[in-house]
Specification:
This protein has 306 residues and is α/β, with parallel strands linked by helices. The protein has ten helices and eight strands. It has one domain (6-305): Alpha/Beta hydrolase fold, catalytic domain (Rossmann fold, 3-Layer(aba) Sandwich).
């Protein structure tokens, strides 16, 4: 068996910030960019998940968004208040934010520029899906194909998270390491919305790795503000030309499955894949279906473009 090329984590300066990134796969393979979600470090794209994608003939790039992990931590923006959320929900008044999803899209383009990637297959999960959509709208020439996973359009008509998932999102940051480890396990139990023993067995090691790379609770708050301040992309998504695949779990407690359906309905020609029993996570038993779908979609887009 051939050993896949692997470039360990490095820091690059792009769009005025430091971005920590890592590359799996051959330098000449088709570039595939993985964008992670709210408060989630790049390692939430599991190492083996990345290796399996690289094994399908992709140069897989994962990175920490601004305000998370080893990328630049920003400043400003107070913790979200219930009053702001009520205003947003009922009065449609956007929240104030130090940056928006469009800035995070620019970060991604800056990273691509520095890595010499003219265009890539762009895959985003949750908030990462929102950033990926923003890239496809604003920088169409940079996107070979778009895959939006467990994400949404920002359309306020999409039903809200379940009460339990919203409580996880809005909980104050843990005060101690022990509390963080307990919170990590509890959070993923809620988000997975089901029993996944393989993942649960890995939770302590995943929590330790995340903790050791460094936490930034105010950054998570700023990322959440960025989502809420960016409004709806629904109307603008009609302009997306990139071949698009939308993947969503049928039991997602955080981004209602209607969010995935709304995304697919808003992008011309988009294909929707609903995965049974999948919540707001990428559990190991679902990897074969997800990786197969991304592989076929991306390589299919390349074949059509040729």
């Amino acid at each position: 068996m051939t050993t896949l090329a692997h470039q360990p984590p490095q820091i690059i300066h792009a769009n005025g910030i430091d971005i920590c990134y890592e590359i799996f796969g051959d330098a000449n393979a088709e570039p595939l960019l993985l964008i992670m979600g709210l408060g989630a470090q790049m390692i939430h794209w599991d190492d083996d998940f990345c290796r399996q994608l690289a094994g399908r003939g992709f140069r897989v790039v994962r990175f920490d968004n601004r305000d998370i992990g080893k990328s630049s931590h920003m400043s400003g923006g107070k913790r979200l208040t219930p009053l702001e959320l009520l205003k947003l929900r009922f009065l449609k008044i956007p929240v104030a934010a130090p940056y928006k999803l469009s800035d995070m899209a620019q970060d991604t383009i800056g990273l691509m520029d520095k890595l010499g990637i003219k265009s890539a297959h762009v895959v985003g999960a949750s908030m990462g899906g929102m950033i990926a959509q923003e890239i496809a709208i604003t920088f169409p020439e940079r996107v070979r194909s778009l895959t939006s996973i467990m994400s949404t359009t920002g359309n306020p008509k999409v039903p809200p998270p379940t009460r339990e998932a919203a409580a996880v999102l809005m909980a104050p940051p843990p005060a101690t390491k022990e509390e963080y480890f307990a919170r990590y396990a509890q959070t993923w139990k809620v988000l997975r919305n089901g029993s996944f023993p393989e993942d649960e067995a890995l939770d302590p090691a995943r929590a330790r790795r995340t903790y050791e790379r460094g936490l930034n609770p105010p950054g998570v708050g700023r990322q959440l503000r960025a989502i809420l301040a960016s409004g709806s992309r629904k109307a603008r998504l009609r302009s997306v030309k990139a071949p698009t695949l939308v993947i969503h779990g049928t039991v997602d407690p955080l981004v209602n499955p209607e969010g995935g359906k709304d995304t697919a309905a808003s992008i011309p020609g988009a294909r929707l894949l609903m995965i049974e029993r999948m919540g707001h996570a990428l559990p190991i038993p679902m990897w074969p279906e997800i990786i197969d779908a991304i592989d076929k979609h991306a390589h299919g887009a390349t074949a059509k473009a040729a």
